[in-house]
Amino acid sequence: MERFEGRTAAVTGAGSGIGRAIAVALAGRGCRLALADVDADGL
Length: 43
Description:
Blueprint: E1 8-12, H1 17-28, E2 32-36
Parallel strand pairs: 1-2
């Protein structure tokens, strides 16, 4: 799978569900993240 070192992604809905899964997957591939969710406790 493609690596994302040096890239930045904004993930909305990152506190749970699909948004969280995407954030975890991108982080595992070296991407820097900006996370947002209406429930800050989930971040």
